[in-house]
UniProtKB/TrEMBL annotation:
GO terms for cellular component: cytosol. The lineage of its organism: Bacteria, Pseudomonadati, Acidobacteriota, Terriglobia, Terriglobales. This is Threonine aldolase. Residues 90-348 form the Aromatic amino acid beta-eliminating lyase/threonine aldolase domain. GO terms for molecular function: L-allo-threonine aldolase activity. Keywords: Lyase, Pyridoxal phosphate. It is an enzyme of class 4 (lyase).
Amino acid sequence: MRDNSQYRTTETTMADAINRRSFLLAAAPAALTAATLAQHPLLAQTAAAPAPLPPVDDRTVYFASDYPNISPEEHIRMFTTALAKHPGKEDTYLKGGAVTELEQKFAAMFGKEDCVFLPTGTLANNLAARILCGEHKHLITQSDSHLYADESDSPSILSGITMQPVAPGKAAPTFEEWEAAVLDAEHRAYPLKVGAISMESPVRRHNGESIPFAIVQKVCAMAKSKGIATHWDGARAFMLLGTPGYDLAHYAAPFDTVFASLYKALHAPFGGMLMGTKEKMAQARDLRHVFGGLIYHGWVAALPALNALDGLPERWSKLRTAAEELIAKLQSAGGYTIERVPNESNIFLLKPSEARMKGLQDRLLAADIRIAAPRNGSIVMYFNETILRRPIAEILKPFVV
């Protein structure tokens, strides 16, 4: 019998060579293309990793968002400071310690009977919607609200609630628009009983534009007359502090439930507070467990928030004064146009001239001042407590050199 092993070896070797050759022939154009593209100066610059930004520290003035990006190291420092001022504040399953104390403070600040700590704002809004709608699973809210546009249809998925959007493209629908939405539901061929109205104010998608209190009063009064419950999505409620005539409890009074965020102005790593009557908040505590929100410890979020609440209204009054001074000086310096947001909270639009825009971001970064990336010639400017870290004259300098 003939031994064919030598032929099998030869065939295998030849096949391997062909496979390697095919791979190299196929890969060569891609490799050459990549190498050629990498040598192109513009594409090479694009491919290069951007230089890391310097870290945000306690000197940074942060106009790029509602609150500065807080590093893990800074969070630890904040925890240490808060623990020194508020020792022995641990909780167990969100009972006792800093969590209970924070709930009591929020209830008092917003003028409500009770308050419940929740891990997220989305959970807070969803529990409010579920509790307020009850058996009447139809809810009306702004088309551009967080509840409708950013919470993945969760009221529908989790609670069977149908959401009816109002006034696309607007932060603050008129009273007539809210009323028309209710009448539309009530006067269909098969009428719908509206269970709740949710109003977000200030509105994230509209640069912090808020709903005037006069509209809030009229809408809530109309809703009450029809047996419709009302919810205030006040995630950014603290961003209105210091505006003329604004008071947390006064603005919250017409609503059945209120949500406020813990990290928008209070430097907590997460969390939100839901407020209302004792009966409704007892329901919220039960549902918090059902929906997986009963975490073992909440002090990690509650403690820094509790610490930040001390003197918060006074600080926001000062920072609003500082922001107005900066705006006035930018206008008087020339080369900057200021666009104010209607019923504003803590945001304005800065439009530099072409000459002012040249090198602006580099100068500000060198001065440890952060801004958002310009879009269509405008910079969205957020003011927060970091504006109080340095004199306005010092902050202004890199804008006008």
